[in-house]
Amino acid sequence: MKYIRIPLGAVQTNCYFLINDEKECLIVDPGGEAQKVFQTIEKHKVKPLAILLTHAHFDHIGAVDEVRERYNLPVHLHRLEKEWPTNPELNGSRFFPLGEITAKPATDLIQGEGEQTIGGFTFQILETPGHTPGSVSFYFAEERWVVSGDALFARSIGRTDLPGGNEPQLLKSIHDKLLTLPEDTFVLSGHGEETTVEEEMDGNPFLNGF
């Protein structure tokens, strides 16, 4: 397997294309600029199977409808954020000068943690709330990847000042779910560069004391 990371939209949210040997593709967090998503799919000649959302903030859902309609894809989102795509106050777009952003409801609601199989992909869903109530991370054990959304960044953590944010809960999620993964696990974050669990355990100033 391989992945491609493309920052999209006004705040450069990372969209990930997870591609297996059969050229199937999972699209994580298509946050805007749908044409760039289409171009990536066409350039690499992959078959999209689904859209996975780590959470439903506006900068992670901006291109969801265009992408899903073009390829007839299911959209997976945690059940606690069922109402968020359609609500600019919940998804945060009402609080930023970019205009209100909405998307249609997700087709597949994530009910909790556990193993998920889509096509030739098998991965673990980890509930990592705190940035938002329904934030999840997608862990691919064989590849040693975890797509963490806005829970954990290189030398930083997700903000908790938007609706539903909870800093103690976020720190607990990071400690209990992400820092317990193998230290060489690559963390594919929602913004910025990739990092590893080991690097964040050793050098993230927000995690001192863990």
Automatic annotation (TrEMBL):
GO molecular function, one term: metal ion binding
Pfam families: Lactamase_B
CDD domains: metallo-hydrolase-like_MBL-fold (cd06262)
Domain Metallo-beta-lactamase intervals: 12-191
Signal sequence coordinates: none
Keyword Hydrolase: yes
Cofactor: Zn(2+)
Keywords: Hydrolase, Metal-binding, Zinc
Name this protein carries in UniProt: Metallo-beta-lactamase domain-containing protein
Protein species of origin: Priestia koreensis
